[in-house]
C-alpha cells in the first residue's frame, strides 16, 4: 500500500512512529483509548476498544494473505484482467482460516476515509463490523460490537485512535507475525480493563500467572480442552501457546477447544480473543448460556478441563435430580461443589482438570459439602491441591487455591507414570510470588517452574524424566499423602495441614534466645517510658491552651 500523506493530528502519533516494541505501542494506544471513555459504560468501553483491535487484526490477516497470493509465481501466468478477481476470491482466504473482509470493511478503507466520512468515522466502523459479521456468519454472527456511532462517542477522539492504530507497527517485530503482536495487544487490554474494573472483572479475567500454572501442570499437548466458565477465553489461549512452545506452530490444532460462558458481553470478548489468536471461535458455541441450566456439551468428554468459575456462587440454578451430582447434591447457597462435580462428569477415562476455587472449598463442612469432598477423595479423583499466595486476584480478596482432578492415577501403560493411586500431592505456595505494586502479586517464571516441576516429578511425567527430576517431600512446601492420612484429617484438603513447617537451619551466629528476650524486654520498657513522658508533655501543653 502506498504511503498516505496526512497531517499527524492525533496526539501520540509521532511517538508511535518512533517506537518499535510491542509494549511501547500498547501503552500509547491505551493512553489514547482512555481519552475516549467519557460517559461510556465500562463494559461498553471494553467492547469498544477490543472491537477496534479485533477489526485491525482481521484486516491485517486478510492483507497478509492477499500479499501471499499476489506473490505467487503462478499468478503471473493469469491474464492481467483476471488477477484482481482472483485476489478477491473468498475461498482463497477462508481455506487458510483467514476471515473474509469485504472491501469497505478493510482497515485501509476506514483509515483513508476517516476524515471525510459523513457522520464521522463511527459510521464507517459500525458498517465494517456488520459487514465482517455477515461475511463470516458461521463464526462471527452477532459477535462484534456496533457501538461506534452512538451519541456518547467523541468522533474526533475516535478518529485520532483510528489514526494511531493505523500507524502502529504490528508488523516488523523480528520474525513475529502480526497475529502474535495483535494477540498480545488484545491480552494487554484485557488485563488493563481487569485492573480498572476491579471486582467486576472476575467474570472475564483470570490472572495470567494463575492460568499459566494450570496449563503448565496439565500439559495439554493434544486432545479436547474444555472450560465451563470460559470468561474471555484465557485458558484456551494459554493452552495454544503451550502447544506452540513445545510442539511448534504446525501443531496448534492438535487441541480442540470447547467452552461455555453465561455473560453475553464476555462471550463476545472470548470469540474475538480466540479468533485473534488463530483459534477456532466456534468452540464456544453460537450463543452464551448458563452451564448448569443449558449444558452445551451433555454427551462430550474431555482430555483436559480448566476453569476459574465464580467463587462461592449462591442462588444458582440447581436441579436436585441432576445426574452430575454423583457424589452428593451441592447446596443452593454455594456452587463450588456443583462446579467440581460438573467438571468431573466431563472428564474422559484419563482426563485431568485444574480448577480455581476459594480456600473455603478445601475445608467447608456446611450443607453436606464435607460429605461430597470425602466422597470425591475416596473415589480417588483428587490428584493435587495447591494453596495460592494472597493478592494474586485483583478481582477478589478471597484467598484462592487450585484443585487438580484426574480420572486415572495409574502408570497408564506406555506413559510409564508413577503409580499415585490412593495418594494426593499437597503443595503450599502461599509464601511464593512477587508483589508488582502495593496490591497485586504475580507468580514469577521461577515460581511457575518450581510448582509445575514438583507436580511432574511426583507424577513421573515425561517432562520430569527429561529434566532428570525425582520427587521427595519438602517440609513446609510439599507432601504426598495417603488417603488414610486424609481421612484422619476428616478429609480437609488444606495443604498446610500436611506439609508441616519448613525446616529452619540453625544459625550458629544467632543471638541466644534468653539474651534476645532480655534485650527486647529492655527496649520495650524504654519505649513505654518515652511514651509516658511524651504523654505528660502533651497533657501539659493542652492544659495551658485550655487555661
TrEMBL record:
Q: Which GO terms describe its molecular function?
A: DNA binding; endonuclease activity; N-methyltransferase activity; site-specific DNA-methyltransferase (adenine-specific) activity
Q: Which organism is it from?
A: Streptomyces antioxidans
Describe the reaction catalysed, as an equation.
Answer: a 2'-deoxyadenosine in DNA + S-adenosyl-L-methionine = an N(6)-methyl-2'-deoxyadenosine in DNA + S-adenosyl-L-homocysteine + H(+)
What's a single GO BP term from this record?
DNA restriction-modification system
Full protein name: site-specific DNA-methyltransferase (adenine-specific)
Cross-referenced Pfam families: HsdM_N (PF12161), N6_Mtase (PF02384)
| Enzyme Commission code(s) on record | 2.1.1.72
Question: Which chain regions cross the lipid bilayer?
Answer: none
Q: Which InterPro entries match?
A: D12N6_MeTrfase_N, DNA_methylase_A-5, SAM-dependent_MTases_sf, T1MK-like_N_sf, Type-I_RE_MTase_Subunit
Asked if the Swiss-Prot or TrEMBL record annotates the protein with the keyword Transferase, the reply is yes
